[in-house]
Amino acid sequence: MKRLSILVFILLSLLLAGCKGKSVKDITVTSVRIVSIVPEGLSDLSALVEVGIHNPALPFEVTDLKGMARYQGQDALALSADQLIVAGHTDKVYSIPLKGHIAEGFNPFQLLKLVSRESDYSDVTFTVTGRVALRGGIGKNIELKDIPLSSLLKQADPQADEK
To answer: Is residue 18 situated within a structural domain?
Structure first.
């Protein structure tokens, strides 16, 4: 569950980093908490995640959020999220429903390796797409390709160097 929290934190951080503006660089994710994870059959899951966001800038929305996790170069898990509307000039916790689907042809038992304590995530990359827009409609499509999870986790966890 902690690793899913980190994943959501990373995805939201990457999307928010795609925005441009005077104080957009000050937008931060302040907390991530997994409320629930529910398997749906053998290859699907749904989750509810609470994400705290500090937004000193104008209100914006994140739509069409999709991500693909790849393990050893093979598509592993497709993720998507509903629209997220972030209020301006606030510190607020948002509930974000997520849907996930194990990619066709991927062995779901390989995912067990990723949740083991020995995993270093060196074989996992993410591609994320979405649209970040001001409430008035002006926005930007973003795509971040083949981001190594190991480097993102190191950036998201400043204490990783101490471990």
So the answer is: yes
